[in-house]
Specification:
The chain contains 9 helices and 13 strands. It has about 450 residues and is of the alpha+beta class. The chain has 3 domains: about 160 residues, 2-Layer Sandwich (Beta-Lactamase), CATH 3.30.450; about 110 residues, Helix Hairpins; about 150 residues, Heat Shock Protein 90 (2-Layer Sandwich), CATH 3.30.565. The strands form 3 sheets. It has a 6-stranded mixed β-sheet with strand order 1-3-2-6-5-4. Helix 4 packs antiparallel against helix 5 and helix 7 packs antiparallel against helix 9. The longest helix has about 55 residues.
C-alpha cells in the first residue's frame, strides 16, 4: 500500500531538517575553531605567566641567605587558582610553589616547553643557566569547560531559531505553492460533467505545463464526448421516423393478409421493430442525460411527478406497484424531465426484472431518498458492479436494452449525487434495490 504525501509537508519537513542540520554543523565547526583558538590563548597565557613569574622567583631564591628550603608564595586573599606552579632545580628539589599547588601532578624532574598529562597542560621555562626551572600547570577540565560553555552559547539560540525557521519555511512554502493548491482544488472540485478549461493565474512555471496539458486533455475529452453524444442522439432521432413508418406498414400488411403464417412472421417483425424503437428512445434519453444539465434554476416538488409516473405504470402493470410517499413536499433542484426519465427507468427495470407475482416497492422519504426495490433472484456481486455500464443486464433471458441503469447513473452523476445498488434488497432475503438521493443543490424546503 502506498501512502500519499503532501508536497508542502514534504518540503517543509525536509527543509526544516536540512536547515537545522546545517546550523548544528555550523555550531560544531564553530566549536572546533573556538577550541583551537582558545587553546592557543591558554597556551600563550601559560607561557606569559611563566615568563613573568620566573624573574620574580629567581630574585626571591637568590636573595635568600641561609634558607635552603622551599617557600610558598604569599596570598593576598583566598581565590580559586586555575594556574599553579612549582620552581625547582634540575634535580627536582622544590624551591618555590604557588599556594594551592598539588606537587603530585608534576613529574619527578622539571621539563621545558609544552607537555601534558591526562589531567593537566604544562609549560616549563629555565633560567640562570638552566639551574632554576618553573613549571606552570593548568587543568584540562578548565579548558574543556570553557570550550563547552562557548559551544552552548552558540547552541542555545538554536532552541529559538529552529521553531522560528520552521514557521518561516512553512509560511514561504505555503505562499509559494498557493497557486498550485488552487490548481489542485480547481481540478478536484469539478464534477465529471465539467470539462471547462482550468484557469489559475500566476502559476509557477514548473506547473504551468501541467495546467496546459490538463486543459488540452479536457478539450479532447469534451470533443470526444460531444461527438459520441451527438452521434447517439442523431442516430436515435433519425431512426425514429423510419421505424415508425416501417411499423405502420407492417401493421397494415398484417391487417390486410389472411395468411396465418404471414401474420405470425409479421408479428415477430413487429415485436423486433418495437424493441428497436424502444432502444432508440433509450439512446435519446441517454444522450440527454449525459449531455444536458440535470439541474434546474428553481426548486421543484418531485412528489407529484413520481405519483403521476407511478399511475401510468399502474395501468400497464395493475397491482404491482406499492407506493410510499411522504405527506409533505420534497423540493429539489433536480430537473423535472431528468427526474421523470430517472424514475421511469428505475420502474421499468424493477417491473421487467423482478418477480412477476410479487410487488415493486417504491418509497420516497422526506429527506429525498428514493428507493425502488423488487423481488427476484439475488444478483451476484461481480455482476452488480457492472450493472451501471451500458448494455449490461443481470439476466440475458429478459427483454431489455441494458442501458436503463446507465441512464440513471448519468443523471445522478450530473446532479452531483450517486446511485447505490443492492442485492438482496434492504429488509429482504432476495431481490434488487436501487437508491438515489434526489434532494440536490441548495434548497429551501
Amino acid at each position: 500500500m502506498t501512502t500519499k504525501t503532501s508536497l508542502q509537508k514534504t518540503l517543509g519537513t525536509w527543509l526544516t531538517i536540512g536547515v537545522t542540520l546545517l546550523w548544528l554543523l555550523g555550531v560544531i565547526a564553530s566549536g572546533l575553531v573556538a577550541r583551537h583558538e582558545m587553546n592557543e590563548v591558554f597556551d600563550s597565557a601559560l607561557e606569559e605567566t611563566a615568563q613573568r613569574i620566573l624573574p620574580l622567583a629567581v630574585t626571591d631564591i637568590l636573595n635568600r641567605e641561609n634558607d635552603t628550603g622551599h617557600h610558598r608564595a604569599p596570598v593576598l586573599k583566598d581565590h580559586n587558582e586555575y594556574l599553579t606552579y612549582l620552581v625547582r632545580n634540575p634535580s627536582g628539589k622544590l624551591l618555590l610553589q604557588s599556594h594551592d599547588v598539588d606537587p603530585d601532578i608534576f613529574g619527578a624532574l622539571p621539563q621545558e616547553g609544552f607537555f601534558e598529562t591526562s589531567t593537566h597542560r604544562f609549560y616549563g621555562e629555565a633560567a640562570v643557566s638552566d639551574t632554576i626551572y618553573i613549571e606552570i600547570a593548568e587543568p584540562l577540565a578548565h579548558r574543556r569547560a570553557a570550550v563547552l560553555e562557548a559551544t552552548l552559547t552558540l547552541l542555545i539560540p538554536l532552541l529559538f531559531l529552529i521553531p522560528i525557521s520552521w514557521f518561516g519555511v512553512w509560511w514561504v512554502i505555503k505562499r509559494s505553492l498557493r497557486q498550485v493548491v488552487l490548481l489542485q482544488q480547481s481540478i478536484e472540485a469539478r464534477g465529471g460533467s465539467d470539462l471547462s478549461p482550468v484557469a489559475v493565474d500566476r502559476l509557477p512555471k514548473e506547473f504551468e505545463p501541467i495546467m496546459v496539458s490538463v486543459n488540452r486533455l479536457l478539450e479532447r475529452l469534451r470533443r470526444a464526448l460531444e461527438a459520441e453524444r451527438s452521434f447517439t442522439a442523431n442516430s436515435a432521432h433519425e431512426l425514429r421516423t423510419p421505424l415508425a413508418t416501417a411499423l405502420a406498414k407492417l401493421q397494415r400488411l398484417n391487417a390486410e393478409t389472411q395468411d396465418v403464417q404471414i401474420k405470425s412472421r409479421t408479428g415477430e417483425i413487429e415485436e423486433s421493430l418495437r424493441t428497436l424503437s424502444r432502444l432508440s428512445q433509450k439512446l435519446l434519453e441517454l444522450a440527454k442525460a449525459e449531455g444536458g444539465s440535470a439541474l434546474s434554476e428553481n426548486d421543484n416538488d418531485l412528489v407529484p411527478i413520481l405519483q403521476m409516473i407511478a399511475n401510468d405504470y399502474e395501468r400497464e402493470a395493475p397491482g404491482r406497484l406499492v407506493l410510499n410517499l411522504p405527506d409533505d413536499s420534497v423540493m429539489s433542484l433536480l430537473d423535472p424531465d431528468a427526474f421523470a426519465i430517472l424514475v421511469r427507468n428505475l420502474m421499468e427495470n424493477a417491473l421487467r426484472h423482478g418477480a412477476a407475482d410479487r410487488p415493486v416497492n417504491i418509497s420516497l422519504t422526506g429527506e429525498g431518498t428514493l428507493r425502488v426495490a423488487n423481488a427476484g433472484e439475488v444478483v451476484p456481486p461481480e455482476k452488480l458492479a457492472l450493472l451501471r455500464n451500458r448494455f449490461v443486464r443481470s439476466d440475458t433471458k429478459t427483454l431489455g436494452s441494458g442501458i436503463g441503469l446507465a441512464i440513471v447513473e448519468a443523471i445522478a452523476s450530473g446532479a452531483g449525487t450517486g446511485l447505490k445498488l443492492r442485492s438482496p434488497a434492504s429488509d429482504q432475503s432476495d431481490g434488487f434495490e436501487a437508491e438515489v438521493n434526489i434532494v440536490v443543490g441548495h434548497t429551501d424546503v
